[in-house]
Amino acid sequence: MCAWDALAQAAGLPLVKLLGGEAKPVRAYNSCGLWIQPLGPLADDAEAAEDVAAVRAVKKRVGDNYNQRHTVNEAIRRGRMLDGEGLDWIEEPVRHDDYVGCARIAADLTTPIQTGENLVDTFELIHALEAKAMDYVMPDLQRIGGVTGWMRAAAITHAYGMEMSSHLFPNTARISSAVTPTAHWLEYMDWAVPVVAEPVQVKDGYGVGEREVLLGRCRRAAA
Predict the structure, then answer these.
(1) H or E element: which one contains 187?
(2) What is the mean pLDDT of the chain?
(3) Any residues with CB less than 8 A from the CB of 6 and at least 6 apart, and which?
(4) Considering the entire predicted model, what is its pTM?
(5) CA distances from 180 to 22, 100, 121, 156 (A)
(6) Is the N end or the C end of the chain the one with fewer CB atoms within 10 Å?
(7) Which residues contact 218 (CB under 8 A, 6 or more apart)?
(8) Residue 19 has what pLDDT?
(9) Which CATH architecture has domain 1-30+116-223?
(10) 42 CB-side CA count, 13 A
(11) Would you state the pLDDT for residue 36?
């Protein structure tokens, strides 16, 4: 990822243009670490959320943690309870590499299944797609192979007609998503804000940035 940033700077171009695209906002959702926030601000955020009642209802039915925690049958049972709650997706309800199991769940439920953050290369992505293991995919930029791997994954998901979201690395993912034909959602995390000079911001539900560089530039004090 840093090599692509250096190449873009050497060429005197925003990375998004070097990749053949144009800068544009990317639809984002808040995935900041709820488990590390102070309780006061967390409670304030919950009170301000429009869907807090639905979230409480879901938690009452299925518990606090869903990610990679269940057998296939249990995931289907719980997923059926969630169908009709208006969720955009259920993420990795069973072991991430159980493509056959994920496919059974995706075929049974109305609520879409999303997986992909643990894919380590585009060959695994193809296996998951061929198995129909998910309705949406969300590769991790670092695991999938950085910008190069992401662009390969974007071409593959485009060929399969599948929407593709990001996992972590919002500054980088905002740019790579802008050149992804089937871009879906940007996962917004604020963890890098203390060390990135120009972190991605979320405005009106979209990830935006002041400059179209890859990683921003690290603050001098953090270098």
Answers:
(1) strand 186-188
(2) 81
(3) none
(4) 0.77
(5) 11, 27, 17, 10
(6) C
(7) 195, 196, 197
(8) 92
(9) Alpha-Beta Barrel (3.20)
(10) 9
(11) 54
